[in-house]
Design a protein that fits this description.
Elements: E1 4-9, H1 15-24, E2 37-39, E3 45-50, H2 55-61, E4 66-70, H3 71-77, E5 82-86, E6 92-99, E7 114-117, H4 120-130, E8 135-138, E9 154-159, H5 163-167, E10 170-179, E11 181-185, H6 191-211
Parallel strand pairs: 1-3, 1-4, 7-8, 7-9
Antiparallel strand pairs: 2-3, 4-11, 5-11, 6-9, 6-10
The structure holds 1-O-pyrophosphono-5-O-phosphono-alpha-D-ribofuranose and magnesium ion.
Length: about 210
């Protein structure tokens, strides 16, 4: 029997809400703590638990058919991958931040400055649009520490509650984009699996309507 292959985050902020929404759709799966692959018990679906940042490539390659992923990750790494359902959870911003004592008046502050980030494409695109040229340092995590250790003048990262910025003595100065979890679809999905996707989308729409 053909199954649709869905990628969800292995651990982290999207993991629980992703499993929860599938459960609300009447699809029960294991949580991926022990296995990286699981089959749904009552729906033609196989679940792959993956690292967030790897998911766009799996979608591009058609190794998975769909994914629950942050829109911010798709914007950063998912060129050519579409989505049609916003899932209403994992809302966050991708923002620029600077040490709180900086007198910030405009984006011009960043001209010639060093910015640490895990979102190089997003920040480069944003700065280009504003006509600013800056030095981008790619870091994979704990980005907010960079100004404190003298690695950067500012950072670009996800802001959710704002607590990480606050704890590191930073302030948000530009919101580059707003994001939430979406259901992304591989450009290589087969016609047969598209039919399963349609069924899933129908259930998701019903769940989202009920949540309102
Ligand atoms: C994420 C993100 C921010 C923080 C934002 O980091 O990179 O640092 O959460 O959330 P907040 O505004 O609610 O504090 P995460 O904790 O996932 O760790 P990482 O950056 O080391 O991957
Ligand atoms: Mg972080």
């Amino acid at each position: 029997m053909t199954k649709i292959r869905i990628a969800i985050q292995k651990s982290g902020r999207l993991n629980e809400d992703s499993i929860e929404i599938l459960k609300n759709c009447g699809i029960s799966i294991d949580n991926g703590k022990d296995q990286l692959k699981a089959s749904a018990r009552n729906f033609p679906m196989e679940v792959f638990y993956l690292r967030n940042g790897d998911i766009p490539q799996y979608l591009k390659d058609g190794v998975v058919d769909i994914a629950i992923i942050g829109e911010n990750v798709l914007i950063e790494k998912g060129e050519g991958i579409g989505f049609d359902v916003r899932l209403g959870f994992s809302k966050c911003k991708v923002s620029l931040a600077v040490p709180k004592e900086v007198k910030y008046s405009s984006i011009n502050y960043f001209e010639g400055k060093r910015i640490a980030t895990s979102y190089p494409n997003t920040v480069k695109g944003y700065l280009k649009e504003k006509g600013i040229s800056a030095d981008i340092h790619i870091i994979n995590g704990s980005v907010e520490i960079a100004p404190n250790i003298g690695l950067a003048d500012g950072i670009c990262d996800i802001v959710s509650s704002g607590s990480t910025l606050f704890k590191n003595g930073l302030k948000e100065v530009e919101v580059m984009l707003k994001s939430e979890a979406v259901l992304a679809v591989s450009p290589k999905i087969s016609e047969e699996r598209k039919k399963i996707l349609t069924k899933l989308q129908f259930r998701i729409e019903a769940v989202l309507t009920a949540r309102q």
